[in-house]
User: Fold Cationic amino acid transporter C-terminal domain-containing protein from Caenorhabditis auriculariae.
Amino acid sequence: MRLWNLRERCFRLKNLPAGELTTPLRRCLSTFDITLLGVGHMIGAGIYVLTGAVVRNTAGPSIVLSFLLAGVASLLSALCYAEFGARFPKAGSAYTYTYVGVGELWAFVIGWNIVLEHMIGSAALARSWSGYLDSLLGNVISNTTIARVGHIHEGSSFLGDYPDLLAFLIIVLVCVFVAMGSKASTNFNSLLTVLNMAVIVVVVGYGITYADFSLWTGVDDSGNSKFFPYGVGGMFAGAASCFFAYIGFDGLATAGEEAKNPARSIPIATFASMSIVTLAYVLMSASLTLMVPYDQVHPSAAFSDAFALKGANFAKVAVSMGALFGMTTSLVGGMFALPRCVFAMAEDGLLFQSLASINPRTQVPIQALMIFGAMTAVIALIFDITTLVEFLSIGTLLAYSIVSACVIVLRYQPSYRHDEGLYDNGGKLRFSIPGMAFLERLEAGHSIYYGITLMIAAFYVTGFCFTSGIAQSTGGQVFTALMILISLAAFLFILAHYQNTSQLDFKVPFVPLLPSLSLLINTIMMLHLSPLTWLRFAFWMTIGFAIYFGYGITHSKEEISAAERFSKSSTYDSVVTASTLQDEPSSLQP
Assistant:
């Protein structure tokens, strides 16, 4: 009984009426503000932090396809985010969406990982910002710091070479700026984003003049394809890393509680920013890999170094300035989203209640910003940028996957039709399945959980068969084919149910096909991440589960609400019982 009660508590759903717009935050952001917030958050991270390392070590020129694949997969997830933004325009992004769709424990898992995602992403950007400025100044900052403070590690694989005081300070300054309020943050972000886009146009146009298409065609001295020097697997591994570049659109959803018209603004801003950013990534990576051979690309200052090799010093300075603009907007976007996600979790009682405090003048979750901003600054101070980037993608991919699953779940739940005063057929089977009569006895929509769980499990096993090489043997091919058939059967099982008829400003087309395709691609990307990334993920989740089961599960608003309902019910039953006993004659009276 206790285990059943624990299960009910872990998977209870958040009670959030559709269209609920009440918020302690200020609704002051337009669609344009939110679009540029997304573009600014994404455009600096992918181009200036990620491109050089992925080209040099993972994908080579096929990074063009890596960015495109990651962009398509992110767009599929973005469609799902857009539907949730129209359905539930509240802060918390994937966290709130998961809470509404599949339950509290999964919501905590996603929220906890989004917090880490924004912290590590911002720390990586701060270290890269410091590195670009240091490069412009002839390494004066790093040399001075090492001379005065010294090195901070002896052969460590994850600590930085020296304490990056500039990265620490830039995080602190961005936190101070974000604390001034949403409108001030977004106005500053919009200005720098426009400047950064102008620099990108100049860089692409100038870089194409140095294009050498022989760098993409034919084979090298080792017999490897010049376009796929690390093979097709390298392209997929590059796509998994490139997901870091698209984490900004997740941050768009956190602005839903401060948008003037979130049901309209969030979908439009999501599609617009995704399209702009994907095009910029593809063009920038193409111009880079057509300028210099992939094995000569600088891993941390790729574009400025490429122009320096060509003797184009003006372009080198322009790229460095664009990098500073782009990474600043990404930092603003990351530090804007971070405290709002913490606020959403704390407001629901899953994190400590003090983190939900709002500054009455600026209407910013100030305590969450101070505490988690300080933690981010310390991470930027001591950790190596490569270590930080490696750890980012897994949380992002997990968030995208669960949101996609939630769209399928919610589409196949019954919805109440107020005009008719009854529920529709959502979640009911279209026809009887021989030998599975028990499904008809389940609550409408409940069988969808079984179908989607089986489909995701089959996706993971199938992907593992391909990535591990099991599918190359005869027995492995038979087993892989069986897993593909199981995933297809699970998909058809979901398709055999009626969808609900709820009306939304935006709905994902071709459900369950597009969300299922998103799940499949995200699964493949996750399976290309290193085992060490999974180990770090397990460590972070151990801390998270300790907080949830030690605090969150008993302080959740849903827990308190359930206790209040039980108390009222018990009081009512006691009153009714006492009244009945007074009205009836007692057999014990003489």
Summary: The CA atoms of residues 132 and 239 lie 24 Å apart. The first strand starts at residue 416 and ends at 417.
